[in-house]
Design brief:
CATH architecture of the largest domain: 3-Layer(bab) Sandwich
Shape: globular
Pfam family, one: Sod_Fe_N
Catalytic activity: 2 superoxide + 2 H(+) = H2O2 + O2
Order of helices and strands: HHHHHHEEEHHH
EC number: 1.15.1.1
Keywords: Metal-binding, Oxidoreductase
Strand order of the largest sheet: 2-1-3
Strand content: 5-15%
Bound molecules: fe (ii) ion
Protein name: Superoxide dismutase
Helix content: 40-55%
Radius of gyration: 21 Å
């Protein structure tokens, strides 16, 4: 009987807490997206990506996408939605800006000045099973990036069963728009490489392998 009374008391207390926090939460909480912090110094990825490119790419381009999305979503059903959900369910300007935030958040956090080499563990095995070898995978990934017309992204992605694929995403799209999980993405918008490589996109893509942080990418798998 004592246990029953205590349980009922707990239930009443929890319910009253829930309703008061719901009322409090409703007051002010409109989620704002923020510019991610880089996990390295702006010059740390040189000579593959210059300090100037990082500063423009992160500080100007990504910041603009963040500002745009924060201006676009108030009053829409995406006001408090997580980024992946916005990319999966939106279209138009909201999709473009949310997609670019997701793309760049994953992009900037997949590099390290100590990067390079090859993937390890399960991801390495899955790449070998899919493309025969890591070198062959890189060749196909580079070809997809070099062959993408205009602005966009090339991604290594996995489906719900862990099956890998290379996807070419136009403009601000991301594999989550097709129900896939993005693992590794190379940005082929000119803003990602023009200061350092001008029109030589294939050279830029080739150099990026030297800074890929396979531990970070492996965790996404
Ligand atoms: Fe970019």
């Amino acid at each position: 009987m004592l246990t029953l009374c205590l349980s009922l008391l707990l239930l009443v207390t929890n319910n009253s807490n829930n309703s008061s926090s719901q009322i409090t939460d409703k007051k002010e909480e409109i989620m704002k997206f923020e510019l991610i912090k880089l996990p390295y110094a702006a010059n740390a990825l040189e000579p593959v990506i210059s300090k100037a490119t990082i500063e423009f790419h992160h500080g100007k381009h990504l910041q603009a996408y963040v500002n745009n999305l924060n201006n676009l979503i108030p009053g829409t059903k995406f006001e408090n939605a997580p980024l992946e959900q916005i990319v999966a369910e939106s279209d138009g300007a909201i999709f473009n800006n949310a997609g670019q935030i997701l793309n760049h958040n994953l992009y900037f956090t997949q590099f390290s000045p100590k990067g390079g080499g090859e993937p390890k563990g399960k991801l390495a095995e899955a790449i070998k099973a899919t493309w025969g070898s890591f070198d062959n995978f890189k060749k196909e990934f580079n070809a997809a990036g070099a062959g993408l017309f205009g602005s966009g992204w090339v991604w290594l992605a996995k489906d719900k069963d862990g099956k890998l694929s290379i996807t070419k995403e136009p403009n601000g799209s991301n594999p989550v728009a097709h129900g896939l999980v993005p693992l590794l993405g190379f940005d082929v918008w000119e803003h990602a490489y023009y200061l350092d490589y001008q029109n030589r996109r294939p050279d830029h893509l080739n150099a990026l392998w030297n800074i890929v942080d396979w531990d970070a990418v492996g965790e996404r798998y």
